[in-house]
Amino acid sequence: MYSERIARVRKNLAAFNINGFLITDGDNLKYLTGFYGGTGDGVLLIGPDQTALITDARYETDFRDHLPEGVELLITRDYYGVAMLVAKRYKINNLGFEESLPFRIFDFLDETFEGVDADSDIVPVPELVGWLRQVKDANELAALRRAAQVSVDAYNEMLPMLHAGMTEREIANLLDRLVKARGAEKASFDTIVASGVRGALPHGEATDKKIMPGELVTVDFGYFVDGYTSDITRTFAVGQIDDESRKIYDIVKTANEKAISVIKAGISGTSIDEAAREIIADAGYGKEFNHSTGHGVGLAIHEGPAVSANSDDQIEAGMLLTIEPGIYVPNHVGVRIEDDIIVTADGFENLTAGITKDLVVIN
Ligand SMILES: [Mn+2]
């Protein structure tokens, strides 16, 4: 599996006018080799014919045994210095680097690599591995289904336990505990619980504020299973809510369902975004939907493709998209409803359909 992924990267090098590629992003390292150290704990150097994983002694024992076929392991604390020596040995003269590289390291490569010979150059490569990661294989889709399922089951288990007077933080901690009890490895971000006027903060972190009758509460959560994450949002009501809040909830729900209904292989990310945005704009809340409709999910909580107003990304079978329209009225109320959708050859599979989108009211 890893050897095939590395081969796919190598096949694409010529398109970027490079014959070597230094991979430094932690999720990309994991995708290509299974290396789990993370960004800053090792690098992968892909040359015309050879590949080296360069890391330090903390990972040596494990990766002596779990090295993908055809990859050599080099142990050092000086990843970048050694990578430059190996690049020379691999006869790389145009070396690609990932744009997330810290400037300090870019500067070192720029100084060191250009000296290899007169033609040597380092070249920024935008999102080559990220682009390959967008379409998931069967094993990745299976992990994404498991991640969604434990999250769905835990949320449904939690709902009847909620009541007015609980704090946002108590709800976040409760959900984290229920999902982990079902086997999730960790949360992929601090669980968001934003109630009442705080609901208008799209990424409001959970606080000690109590949820009160008359409020809507938005819960946004994602958990890793087998290295792949879910990303789900639901908004529920506490007691009786005002008419405008109820109206906004229904608009967001309609926008979510409309965007999901148009998903199929071959559509553009922009068309899906438009489907949601049109509903919200027509209802008079265009300005209050101030983020994109969705994004890819996989090893990372946010990855390609973009489901946004200005996305060139084409949607293909095997991608996992979030669909998460929202309306945020400052100092009043916020609603977001987010599902995780696998794009299939003839439509889609909604991994999070198990949590109702009818407005849930707790007391
Ligand atoms: Mn999301």
TrEMBL record:
SUPFAM superfamilies: Creatinase/aminopeptidase, Creatinase/prolidase N-terminal domain. GO terms for molecular function: aminopeptidase activity; metal ion binding. The keyword Protease applies. Keywords: Aminopeptidase, Hydrolase, Metal-binding, Protease. Residues 5-135 form the Creatinase N-terminal domain. Residues 143-345 form the Peptidase M24 domain. It holds the Pfam family Peptidase_M24. Belongs to the peptidase M24B family. This is Aminopeptidase P family protein. It comes from Weissella diestrammenae. The lineage of its organism: Bacteria, Bacillati, Bacillota, Bacilli, Lactobacillales.
